[in-house]
């Protein structure tokens, strides 16, 4: 069951989209933790994906910008936690490198064109496989091509290379509070579980998997990560440990088999 305020925000979003897009609105789908089953009202964002018949026009883009500014001003605790993109039917079929789409990032309230990285392969897999994602429109299988394990694996490995580069820049101010460190730990555990099991599960499930399958000291990180999720304290020592975990994960991932035995 959706959190009450998250559900209210999504209803307001869909009503606004139907008003702005009319019959050109094809569907609205949940993604992320709302589908995977580990939505946390204290830390999670509200992830969705909107499909339009053809690419959003300039006039529609202007109306949607205004819609999202209004939604961001609602007296709803998730008002600025909405993450959303608008794709045409054609673009929804499969991820293509270099394509930019109207996208709303958490905390901004501002809809802008952003290039979609390979993490959107993972988003499509979640919409198709993780649970009930449809809020409005046809079944997602009618709009999205199946995501193969080869595609899923490639996306995870490419994202891990980005994380590896981030871990090698410890001076980056993005290495901040313990809550961010917990997010990184969850993400690394989820990447390893995906490559080992061929299933992209929830972050909560990935932590449970890690507690059984990872060696120390990484297992201990997976045990302690939940207690850090809402912790705003800066912890340089923890950040150094998590950076080491990222580097270990990237190396370990390359050694995992590309097919199940």
UniProtKB/TrEMBL annotation:
InterPro entries linked: AadA_C, NT_sf
Protein name: Adenylyltransferase AadA C-terminal domain-containing protein
Top-level lineage group: Bacteria
Source organism: Deinococcus irradiatisoli
GO MF annotation terms: transferase activity
Keywords: Transferase
Sequence ranges assigned to domain Adenylyltransferase AadA C-terminal in this UniProt record: 142-231
């Amino acid at each position: 069951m959706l959190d009450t305020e998250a559900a209210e925000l999504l209803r307001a979003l869909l009503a606004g989209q139907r008003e702005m897009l009319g019959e050109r609105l094809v569907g609205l789908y949940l993604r992320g933790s709302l589908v995977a089953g580990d939505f946390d009202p204290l830390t999670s964002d509200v992830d969705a994906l909107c499909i339009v018949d053809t690419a959003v026009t300039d006039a529609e883009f202007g109306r949607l910008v205004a819609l999202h500014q209004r939604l961001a001003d609602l007296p709803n605790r998730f008002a600025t936690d909405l993450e959303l993109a608008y794709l045409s039917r054609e673009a929804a079929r499969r991820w293509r490198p270099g394509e930019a789409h109207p996208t709303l990032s958490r905390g901004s309230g501002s809809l802008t064109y952003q290039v979609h990285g390979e993490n959107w392969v993972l988003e499509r897999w979640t919409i198709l496989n993780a649970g009930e994602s449809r809020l409005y429109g046809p079944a997602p299988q009618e709009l999205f091509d199946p995501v193969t394990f080869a595609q899923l694996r490639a996306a995870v490995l490419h994202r891990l290379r980005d994380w590896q580069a981030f871990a090698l820049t410890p001076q980056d101010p993005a290495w901040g509070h313990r809550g961010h460190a917990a997010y990184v730990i969850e993400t690394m555990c989820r990447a390893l579980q995906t490559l080992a099991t061929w299933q992209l599960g929830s972050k909560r499930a990935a932590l449970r998997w890690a507690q059984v399958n990872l060696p120390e000291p990484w297992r201990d990180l997976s045990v302690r990560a939940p207690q850090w999720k809402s912790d705003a304290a800066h912890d340089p020592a923890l950040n150094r440990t998590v950076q080491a975990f990222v580097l270990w994960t990237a190396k370990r991932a390359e050694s995992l088999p590309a097919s199940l035995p």
